[in-house]
Design goal:
It is a multi-pass membrane protein. Belongs to the GSP F family. It is a single chain. The longest helix is centred in the C-terminal third of the chain and has 56 residues. Strand 1 and strand 2 form a beta hairpin. The protein is flat. It is mainly α and about 400 residues long. The chain has 3 domains: about 45 residues; about 90 residues, Up-down Bundle (Receptor-associated Protein), CATH 1.20.81.30; about 250 residues, Receptor-associated Protein (Up-down Bundle). A 3-stranded antiparallel β-sheet has the order 2-1-3, with helices on one face. Helix content is about 75%, strand content about 5%.
C-alpha cells in the first residue's frame, strides 16, 4: 500500500461523546480520532469513562470544501506556532485539532502524514496543487533552506490576505451589475405571473378594446405563465453550456478574457487588479530569494486573466533570452506607464522588490476606489431599472382604468 493511500485510510473523524470523569460528574464533548477505539483510548487516558460515543454527522456542504481563507488561516496559525518554538509535526497536529472543518482537517493530517514519512514540508504542500499554489510552495522551500519558516509562512498569509481582498473587490465590481439585472428580471416575472392575471380577469368584463401597452403586457404575462419553466431551464442550460465551453476551449476563454478587459468601467478594474496581483506576487517571491524565472512563472498564475497570463509568459521567455524585465513588459502593451517606470527604476537601483510593492499598493487603492465609485453610480441605476420595469407593468395595467374613468 502506498503512503498516500495509507494516509487516506487513517483519516481522522469527529466523534461526540458523553461520560463521567474521576469525580463522577457527567461530561460531554467532541474529539477527533481514527475510530471509536482510538477515542475511547484517548478519553480513558484522561480518566473519563465513556457512556455514549457517536460519529458526528455533517450537513452536506458544511466544511467539506477547502476555501482560500482556510489556507490563509492555516499559514497564519502555523507561523505563530513555529515562531513560538513548537516543532513542525506538533504544530500541524495542533492546527488540525483546532479546526472544525472536516476537509481542512483531513488536508492538514495528510500533510502531517507525508512529513512524518520523510517528505519536506514544501514537498508535502506541493502534492496538493488544488489548494496550494506555487507561491506557497516556493516561499516554504526558501524558508526551509534559510531556516526562516515562520517568517515565510507569515509572508504567505499576508500575501494571500491581500490577494483575497483584491479578488473580493473585483467580484463585487462584476456581481453588482448582474445582481441589479437579476433583481429587475425577478420582480418583473413575479408581476407578470402573479399580478397581471388578476387585472386581466377584470379587463375581460369591460368589453372594450385595451390600449396597446396593456395588450403587450398581457401577452407577456400569458407567455410567462405558460413557458416560465422552459425559459428557466433554457437559461440554466445556456449558463452551463457557456461555462463548459470556456473550460474546454482555451481560444474561447482567451476571447472572453479580452472582452472583459474591454468592458467600460469594469475593464479597467480587472486590468488594475491583474497588475496588482502580478506585482505583489513577483515582489514576494523575488524577496524570498526565488529566481526571477520561477518568480515570473508563479506570478503568471495569479493574474486572474488569460490575456495577462499569456503576456507574462512572453515576458518570461524574453527575460530568459537576456532582456531586461521592464523592456520585456513594455513589448506586451498591457502594463501601464507607471508600472513600467517603477520596474525600470527598481532594476537600475537594485530595489525591484520595493518598487513592485509600491505598484501593488497603488493599484490596490485604485481598484478599491473604482469599485466604490461603481457601487455609488449603480445605486441610481438600480432605481431607474427597477422603476422602469415595475413602473412600466403597473402603468400598462392602469391605462384601461384611466380610459374608463375619462369615458365616464
Amino acid at each position: 500500500m502506498s503512503k498516500r493511500s495509507s494516509a487516506s485510510s487513517g483519516q481522522a473523524t469527529t466523534f461526540r461523546w458523553m461520560g463521567k470523569n474521576g469525580r463522577g460528574e457527567r461530561v460531554r464533548g467532541e474529539m477527533h480520532g481514527i475510530n471509536e477505539h482510538d477515542i475511547r483510548r484517548q478519553l480513558s487516558s484522561q480518566g473519563i469513562i465513556v457512556t455514549r460515543l457517536n460519529r458526528k454527522r455533517h450537513l452536506p456542504g458544511m466544511g467539506h470544501r477547502i476555501r482560500g481563507e482556510d489556507i490563509t488561516l492555516f499559514a497564519r496559525q502555523m507561523a505563530t506556532l513555529i515562531r513560538a518554538g513548537v516543532p513542525l509535526l506538533q504544530s500541524l497536529e495542533a492546527v488540525a485539532n483546532g479546526t472544525n472543518r472536516p476537509a481542512l482537517r483531513h488536508f492538514i493530517e495528510t500533510i502531517k502524514s507525508d512529513v512524518s514519512s520523510g517528505m519536506s514540508f514544501s514537498q508535502a504542500l506541493a502534492a496538493h496543487p488544488r489548494h496550494i499554489d506555487q507561491l506557497f510552495v516556493h516561499l516554504i522551500e526558501a524558508g526551509e533552506q534559510a531556516g526562516a519558516l515562520d517568517r515565510m509562512l507569515d509572508r504567505v498569509a499576508t500575501n494571500k490576505e491581500r490577494l483575497d481582498n483584491l479578488k473580493a473587490r473585483v467580484r463585487k465590481a462584476l456581481y453588482y451589475p448582474a445582481a441589479v439585472v437579476a433583481v429587475g428580471i425577478a420582480v418583473t416575472a413575479l408581476l407578470l405571473i402573479k399580478v397581471v392575471p388578476q387585472f386581466e380577469s377584470m379587463f375581460a368584463s369591460f368589453g372594450a378594446e385595451l390600449p396597446a401597452p396593456t395588450r403587450i403586457t398581457i401577452a407577456l404575462s400569458d407567455a410567462a405563465q405558460q413557458l416560465w419553466w422552459q425559459i428557466l431551464l433554457a437559461a440554466l442550460a445556456a449558463g452551463m453550456f457557456t461555462r463548459r465551453m470556456l473550460a474546454r476551449s482555451p481560444a474561447l476563454a482567451l476571447q472572453a478574457s479580452r472582452l472583459m478587459l474591454r468592458l467600460p468601467v469594469i475593464g479597467p478594474v480587472i486590468e488594475r487588479a491583474a497588475i496588482a496581483r502580478f506585482s505583489r506576487t513577483l515582489a514576494t517571491t523575488f524577496a524570498a530569494g526565488v529566481p526571477l524565472m520561477s518568480a515570473l512563472e508563479t506570478a503568471k498564475g495569479v493574474c486572474g486573466n488569460l490575456v495577462f497570463e499569456q503576456a507574462i509568459e512572453r515576458v518570461r521567455q524574453d527575460v530568459n533570452t537576456g532582456q531586461q524585465l521592464n523592456f520585456a513588459m513594455r513589448t506586451t502593451g498591457l502594463f501601464t506607464p507607471m508600472t513600467l517606470q517603477m520596474v525600470a527604476i527598481g532594476e537600475e537601483s537594485g530595489a525591484l522588490e520595493a518598487m513592485l510593492n509600491r505598484v501593488a499598493d497603488f493599484y490596490d487603492v485604485e481598484v478599491e476606489n473604482r469599485v466604490d465609485t461603481l457601487t455609488t453610480l449603480m445605486e441610481p441605476l438600480i432605481i431607474v431599472v427597477l422603476g422602469s420595469l415595475v413602473g412600466g407593468v403597473v402603468v400598462s395595467m392602469y391605462l384601461p382604468v384611466f380610459d374608463l374613468g375619462s369615458a365616464i
